[in-house]
Amino acid sequence: MKNTHYALLVLCLFATITLHAQKEEKDEKAIKAVINLFFEGLEHGDTILLKKSCTSQPVMQTYMADRDGKWQVFTEDFNELITFVGTPTKDKYDEKIEFESIMSEASLASVWTPYKFYLNGKISHCGTNSFQLVKTQEGWKIQYILDTRRKACK
Q: pLDDT tens digits for 46-103?
């Protein structure tokens, strides 16, 4: 009887671990999809995709050197980004990201993505994006983006 209880306990533990791993994998896929949707919107000038990927009031900041070389945090207005992206242009924007780290729990996720930004096929700058996402009734949404920007890229 003791062995039966032990076997049942091991089976329950294994099932719990398996279900948890499946949930984490599902969340990771959904988180990546939202971030990829954001960049798809940027690349194609699609403001609907940008808005769909974010909460109603996302915070966007950049940490970069100013004209004097002093590193500062600059806050960007999401509505200005929407206007910029929605304005027709012949320029082609393409940001190539790598998903380096994704951490999540029930309703909060943090994602680290090194990137290279291309303007008309030529590298413009590079750095790292730090995304903070929240899980809403509609699914994962970007609430906060902080990125670094460097001109010296490898």
A: 999 999 999 999 999 999 999 999 999 999 999 999 999 999 999 999 999 999 999 9
User: Cα–Cα distance between 52 and 45 in angstroms, integer?
Assistant: 13
Q: How far apart, in whole angstroms, are the C-alpha atoms of residue 76 and residue 14? A: 47
Of the candidates 111, 77, 119, the one whose C-alpha atom is nearest the C-alpha of residue 95 is 119
Cβ pair 110, 122 in contact under 8 A:
no
pLDDT at 17: 46
The whole-angstrom separation of Cα 82 and Cα 76 is 11
- Cα distance between residue 24 and residue 19, in whole Å: 9
**Which positions ≥6 away from 94 have C-beta within 8 Å?**
43, 117, 118, 121
According to the model, what pLDDT value does residue 123 have?
Answer: 96
Is the confidence at residue 43, as pLDDT, over 70? yes
| CA distances, 147 to each of 20, 67, 103, 150, 152 (Å) | 31, 18, 17, 10, 15
Confirm if 43 and 94 have CB atoms less than 8 A apart.
yes
The identity of residue 31, as a single letter, is I
